[in-house]
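Good morning C.,

I know you're traveling, so I'll keep this short. The sequence:
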Amino acid sequence: MVPRSSLEDIDRLDILEMIFGIGLILNNQEQKVPDFEIRVRASKHGPDMFYVNKYIKLIADDLF
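The tokens, ready to paste straight into the viewer:
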């Protein structure tokens, strides 16, 4: 959650959140009643199976 600030800062955060898949919620701290705005919703990604298999092979002897 980020306080509303300059549009330039929000645009930068918008792009970073889309790249990394995290969400962005803006709020207005100056008002007594909370005012939230969801700009980007978080996206769910599964693990990259290439790396899962690679690291499982490294620790397989310890696990089994």
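Safe travels,
E.
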